[in-house]
Amino acid sequence: MANHPVFADAASILDRLYETYDFLIECVAPDLWSPGPDGRRIALGTALEPTVRHQLDQAVRQIRHTPACRDELARLAALLRAPGETTLAAEAERAGVRDVAEAAGAQVDLLTIPDLPRRTHQDFTALFRRHLSAGEDSDRLARFGPGQAAVARDAVALMRDTAPELCAGLFRHARYLVAVDGPDAFDSASTREIPGAAFVALRCMRTPERLAEAILHEFVHLRFYDLQMTRSVFVPDYDTRTAPTVAPEWHRDSPVSRWPVDRALAAAHVYVHLAAWFEQRARACPDPELERSARTADFRASSLLDKVARSAHLCLGPAGVGFLDWLAQVHQKRSAPRAAAGAPVPS
Prior knowledge:
Blueprint: H1 10-28, H2 44-47, H3 50-61, H4 66-81, H5 88-95, E1 99-103, E2 106-110, H6 119-131, E3 140-142, H7 146-162, H8 164-167, E4 176-181, E5 188-189, E6 197-201, H9 208-230, E7 245-246, E8 259-260, H10 261-284, H11 288-310, H12 312-315, H13 318-341
Parallel strand pairs: 2-4, 4-6
Antiparallel strand pairs: 1-2, 3-4, 5-6, 7-8
């Protein structure tokens, strides 16, 4: 799964993403951004910082309305020129609290102290509150203690050692792993509005195995978000609020029993990866529960891929059609031997 040159090559996706941002600035607001020695209007490390990317993405979405796009870029330019504006990692380094997990030539920063009294940290927390939080009394960003940091490094090592081909490229799509706590905190989450950041509850950091599953899940989402910013995955007028919906069998009794096509495709992408992950873990460490998890992920991937395919002509752009076909081929090739050995578990 790590070998497709368009849909699963981290370097290709991120290079295209950076080129998109830099070209946008060059075309729309060159007078606001002086070129650097390399001719670029914005440095790579700055462009891929979550708080900066959030605003760059807002500008990209306004590309058909040049004045609005330029306004977004002007606000970002003013922000980056403000004293003390930097990255979360740089501020953690300056405070002596930076910690990272390294794998496959990439590193993911652990947001050890999310409440550092710095503008960058405050902006990041504000994005969490606006786009992921269930409310002030429900959840909060939490500190990464030494115990959680050790489990995180063990989880990354588990991913690297168990499924290197599956996981290697995923690490490049994530810049930060962020802990969350609180009575209503989700297990794990990510959002297009905070690109490059994966949020995981402290309760899911008790073992490397549980954390590795959560990291894989969210890092796959992060890759999909990056792909959406650089390829025509959906038709230009796609609107998740009015899009066709599908009904996952395992969500029949859920308050949200139907999913729009974009959510279903994103989930199918994750389940294809989870099926491969649990299969490789079961091969390395035979366990009936891992086998059952692999069969469940198999079933859910197959079900969602089939359902999305029925609405592909209405919702997917050229890249989206290719992406769906590729996912279906990869999943079919990998799951055919398992299907022949026994029926999947619809749960």
